[in-house]
Specification:
Number of helices: 6
Order of helices and strands: HEEEHEHEEHEEHH
Distance between the termini: 57 Å
Radius of gyration: 21 Å
Strand order of the largest sheet: 4-1-5-8-6-7
Number of domains: 1
CATH architecture: 3-Layer(aba) Sandwich
Bound molecules: zinc ion
Length: 209
């Protein structure tokens, strides 16, 4: 007795029908797990200053560390600047939008005339930014041991026209004399701790969105 042989063309067609939606779904989830990291200021725009430490350099250092940690965690990373360039806000959000990043995290450090002022905060613009901003400031203040200053609405910067959830992180006050001591400490790596705090916030956000 002879069994009919299955037509290989039909078998391939059925496999294609079954697996194509699966690949589409997984590629959508993978695309969401990407972050556009924006180191604030740069070039002629130095940001806040404490002694020889310029905010633009600190922002870039923390951004580079976050990019390494995020990549190691399987998150795709885009970065608006990797050197000391002057960028407009438009350059920044246009870059992140064109890359189609899942989220935007802009890295800044606050400034004040009072050297005792120090806390973490995160800025948001639109409703869909709120959860990300909360997640970032909560993780940062936990990791850095800073006062949690919560989130504030801010209609400017890279978050103004970012099409995806976006936040500006103000990790701590660069102008704080306490933070200056920590940044110069040989035993405490404030920059690495901050990068880890930012990653924790991003992972926590991705776990629920
Ligand atoms: Zn700044």
């Amino acid at each position: 007795m002879k069994f009919p042989q299955p037509d290989m063309k039909n078998v391939l067609y059925i496999l294609l029908l079954v697996f194509t939606p699966f690949f589409f779904v997984t590629s959508i989830f993978a695309a969401n797990r990407s972050v556009c990291i924006d180191p604030g200021h740069g070039g002629t725009d130095v940001g806040s200053v404490n002694g020889e430490i310029l905010e633009k350099d600190l922002n870039l250092d923390v951004a580079d560390r976050l990019a390494t940690l995020a990549t190691q965690s399987g998150i795709s990373v885009f970065q608006t600047r990797t050197g000391d360039q002057t960028l407009t806000n438009r350059d920044r959000y246009t870059f992140c939008n064109e890359k189609g990043a899942g989220i935007v995290v802009s890295i800044h450090h606050n400034g004040s005339n009072d050297p005792t002022t120090d806390f973490s905060m995160a800025l948001y613009m639109k409703k869909s930014d709120v959860d990300l901003a909360r997640s970032i400031v909560n993780s940062l203040s936990t990791k850095l041991g800073t006062t949690n200053g919560g989130i504030s609405r801010f209609a400017s910067g890279v978050i103004l026209k970012a099409k995806m959830p976006a936040t500006i992180s103000e990790g701590f006050f660069l102008t704080s004399s306490y933070e200056y001591t920590l940044l110069k400490s040989a035993s405490i790596d404030r920059r690495q701790d901050e990068a880890q705090g930012l990653l924790d916030g991003i992972l926590s956000y991705f776990s629920t969105h």
